[in-house]
Amino acid sequence: MNHSDTHPHMTKISADAMKTEIEKCDTKIESITGEKPFLFRPPYGDYNSKVIETLAECGHYTVQWSVDSLDWKDLTADEICTRVTEKIHPGAIVLFHNAAKNTPDALPKILEYMKENNYKVVPVSDIIHKDNYTIDHTGKQILKNNNER
Questions:
Q1: Rounded-to-integer distance, Cα 105 and Cα 93, Å
Q2: Most buried pick, 38, 63, 100, 101, via CB within 10 A?
Q3: Domain final residue pick, 63, 81, 96
Q4: Based on the domain organization, do 85 and 48 belong to the same domain?
Q5: Residue 149 — very low, low, confident or very high, per pLDDT cuts 50/70/90?
């Protein structure tokens, strides 16, 4: 997934600047993984129609989260675990940060909770709609025929 090259507020920059952010990050990811990303999570969750449309022009789907672990606030592992397990739901996309101090200690407990409650961890690309959808004000994809996912 692409998250931008320099982590700007995407709604505050031009479409051309957005495209540059995406292209630079795509190039870095592809040079390491051999694959070009097609998902984009805007920094700070900051998006609007212009961001979604511009990213679509770049071949990316804009993805949000439904549960923020708040790991970026340096919560303890137990606080992260409690926050996530109290808010998780089928189809949830949980936001974690790979540089967060206590996330590695929280994850085993969260994953055990998920296993005990019959949740399945899947890539975001497996649960997003890729066509015939709209995005509501919360960032949730809604199929145009009104079936939710």
A1: 19
A2: 63
A3: 63
A4: no
A5: very low
Q: Is the dihedral of CA 114, 115, 117, 120 positive or negative?
A: positive
In this structure, of 6-10, 68-72, 88-92, the range with the lowest mean pLDDT score is: 88-92
Over residues 107-111, mean pLDDT: 97
Residue 52 and residue 74 in one domain: no
100 neighbors 77 (Cβ within 8 angstroms): no
Tens of pLDDT, residue by residue over 39-49, are 999 999 999 99
Q: Are residues 55 and 20 in the same domain?
A: yes
Q: Residue 61 corresponds to which tokens in the numbers above?
A: 């789907």
For the chain, how many structural domains are there in total?
2
What is the domain range of residue 59? 10-63
Tell me which residue has tokens 């505050």.
12
